[in-house]
Design brief:
The complex is a heterodimer.
Chain A (H helix, E strand, L loop, with lengths): L2 E3 L4 E5 L4 E3 L2 E3 L6 E6 L5 E7 L5 E3 L5 E5 L4 E6 L8 E10 L6 E5 L3 E6 L1
Parallel strand pairs in A: 2-12
Antiparallel strand pairs in A: 1-4, 3-9, 5-6, 5-10, 7-8, 8-9, 10-11, 10-12
Chain B lengths: L3 E4 L2 E4 L4 E8 L5 E7 L6 E7 L2 E5 L6 E7 L2 E7 L7 E8 L9 E2 L3 E5 L1
Parallel strand pairs in B: 2-11
Antiparallel strand pairs in B: 1-3, 3-8, 4-5, 4-9, 5-6, 7-8, 9-10, 9-11
The chains are: A mainly beta, B mainly beta.
C-alpha cells in the first residue's frame, strides 16, 4: 500500500529566505511522486513530478525536489521564497485503484507555507 | 472556457435537501475524480471514473451518488447529508487515469450542511 507523510503542518519563513518542505513516502510498487500547490480559494496545481531518471526534479515558480530512494523522501525546496508563495503544499504518491489499470493519487496532509515580509 | 470548471462555487443546504455538484473538463481527458477536502485532514479520494466507468469507490456513504454521463462531465448528487459532510469538494481530470498522469483540478465547491 502507498502512503505519504508530511511532518510539518506549517512552515513560517521570511521573504527571500530558502525553504524546504519535507515529504516521506511508502510504496510497494513503482514510485511516482508529485508536489501540488493550492493557493487560497483555488484548486490544486501541479508544481513538479518525479517519474524516473534524474533524482533532481525542477518545477514551476523556481521550486525543485529531490527523490531519495534510500531515505524514501521527496523534499521540496526553493532557494528564495516570495510573499506570493504563501499557500498549501501537498505531496502525493501514485498508486493503483485495484481495478483494471486505473491509478489514483494518495496525498499527504499538506504543509502550509507562510512567507512573511 | 478552459481547464476544469465546477458549479456552484458555494452551496448551503439543509440535511433534507437534494442537490447536485457539477464538474466539466475542457481538456479532452478520459479520467475524472471527486475529492473531499476537510479542514485538518488529508485530501480524500471519493470516486474515480475512467472512460465513463467507475473504477474506485473509496467507501463513500450512499448519500453521495456520482454520475459520469460522458468523459467531459461529472456530477455528484447529494441527499440527506450530515453536518460533517461540510467541506470543499474538488473535481479533477487526467489524460488516461494512469500512474504518471498529472491531475488537473477545478476550483472546488464549498459545501455547508446546516
Amino acid at each position: 500500500a502507498q502512503s505519504v507523510t508530511q511532518l510539518d503542518s506549517q512552515v513560517p519563513v521570511f521573504e527571500e529566505a530558502p525553504v524546504e518542505l519535507r515529504c516521506n513516502y511508502s510504496s510497494s510498487v513503482s514510485v511516482y511522486l508529485f508536489w501540488y500547490v493550492q493557493y487560497p480559494n483555488q484548486g490544486l496545481q501541479l508544481l513538479l513530478k518525479y517519474l524516473s531518471g534524474s533524482t533532481l526534479v525542477k518545477g514551476i515558480n523556481g521550486f525543485e525536489a529531490e527523490f531519495n530512494k534510500s531515505q524514501t523522501s521527496f523534499h521540496l525546496r526553493k532557494p528564495s521564497v516570495h510573499i506570493s508563495d504563501t499557500a498549501e503544499y501537498f505531496c502525493a504518491v501514485s498508486g493503483p485503484t485495484g481495478m483494471d489499470s486505473s491509478y489514483k493519487l494518495i496525498f499527504g496532509s499538506g504543509t502550509r507555507l507562510l512567507v512573511r515580509p | 472556457e478552459t481547464g476544469v470548471t465546477q458549479t456552484p462555487r458555494h452551496l448551503v443546504m439543509g440535511m433534507t435537501n437534494k442537490k447536485s455538484l457539477k464538474c466539466e473538463q475542457h481538456l479532452g481527458h478520459n479520467a475524472m475524480y471527486w475529492y473531499k477536502q476537510s479542514a485538518k485532514k488529508p485530501l480524500e479520494l471519493m470516486f474515480v471514473y475512467n472512460f465513463k466507468e467507475q473504477t474506485e469507490n473509496n467507501s463513500v456513504p450512499s448519500r453521495f451518488s456520482p454520475e459520469c454521463p460522458n468523459s467531459s462531465h461529472l456530477f455528484l448528487h447529494l441527499h440527506t447529508l450530515q453536518p460533517e459532510d461540510s467541506a470543499l469538494y474538488l473535481c479533477a481530470s487526467s489524460q488516461q487515469g494512469g500512474a504518471t498522469d498529472t491531475q488537473y483540478f477545478g476550483p472546488g465547491t464549498r459545501l455547508t450542511v446546516l
